[in-house]
Amino acid sequence: MNEERLVDIESKLSFQEDLIEELNKTLYQQQKRLAQLEEVCRTLAGHIESLSAANEGKPVNERPPHY
Question: How far apart are CA 20 and CA 53, in angstroms?
């Protein structure tokens, strides 16, 4: 009976090690994706700022001439 318990514990430990490895891989991939998305956000924010600076002095909600 003691041998059976030891085998059971070893099996559980092996499963947990595999699970931890998979979770680490997933976390790494998510971190990479998050970094990419943050870079996209920074690029878009810069683009919006440059468009805003280009429209200085122009009314924001000006009606088109046909109204």
Answer: 49
- DSSP classification of residue 64: P
Q: What would the DSSP string read from start to end of 37-67?
A: HHHHHHHHHHHHHHHHHHTTTS-TTPPPTT-
Q: For residue 3, give both structure tokens.
A: 């041998």
Interval 23-65: pLDDT, tens: 999 999 999 999 999 999 999 999 998 888 777 767 667 777 7
Q: How far apart are CA 30 and CA 48, in angstroms?
A: 27
Three-state DSSP state, 58: coil
CA atoms 28, 30, 33, 34: torsion sign: negative
